[in-house]
Amino acid sequence: MSTASSTQALYLGAGDPTRRFTDYVPAWIDNLADDATVEGSMIDGAVQGREAVRNIVVTIRSIYERQEFNFAGPLGENQWLEDYIATFHGGVPIGCIVLVTRNAEGNTQSVVASYRPRSSVMLLSRLLGQKFAGLPYGNQFDQSGADYPRLVDSSH
Predict the structure, then answer these.
(1) In what order do the strands lie in the sheet with 108-116?
(2) What is the mean pLDDT of residues 40-62?
């Protein structure tokens, strides 16, 4: 059994770096349904609409300083799975699992993103809340303005 002091979280870059790839661009973003939705651990509720979903995904990617994919590929007949790690805001690490579901026409219908760790999720949500202030979905991101602390290594 592993202990917290000897285990490195995967979002910190643990695992086999030779399996990662950085040149991946998600094709599903160019095939969004008109009523596509995005939801995830940094959004309260879900956001609906092709342009809103595209704006959120493209903005998140633009905030990243570095992004490396561990996996991107089909999951069954109508789903796509992505597993990646990234850094943002001066090196803050974040990990994400994305599940994309296509509708009967083959368009991206839903995007669900699960981020970790909590401190990075809160900071990224706050940054997105600032970027999307004034937009109809801006208040679904953190609007507290709190200055969350940088990630601390708890193994020491």
Answers:
(1) 46-48, 32-40, 108-116, 92-102, 79-88, 64-74
(2) 96
Q: What does each C-alpha distance from 100 to 35, 40, 112 come to in angstroms?
A: 14, 12, 7
Q: Name the residue ranges covered by the structural domains of the chain.
A: 18-133
**Averaged pLDDT, 102-121:** 97
Region 97-121: mean pLDDT is: 97
| Contact yes or no for 138/59 (Cβ under 8 A) | no
Separation of alpha carbons 3 and 97, rounded Å: 24
| First-residue to last-residue Cα distance in the chain | 19
User: Are the CB atoms for 121 and 146 separated by under 8 Å?
Assistant: no
CB 10 within 8 A of CB 31: no
Beta partners for residue 121, in sequence order? none
Residue 40 in contact with residue 115, Cβ under 8 Å?
A: yes
Question: Cα–Cα distance between 7 and 77 in angstroms, integer?
Answer: 35
Single pTM value for the model: 0.84
- CATH architecture of the domain formed by 18-133: Roll (3.10)
Which pLDDT score, from 0 to 100, does residue 15 have? Answer: 67
Identify any residues that bridge with 61 across adjacent strands, giving them in sequence order. none
Residue 128: its H or E element: helix 118-131
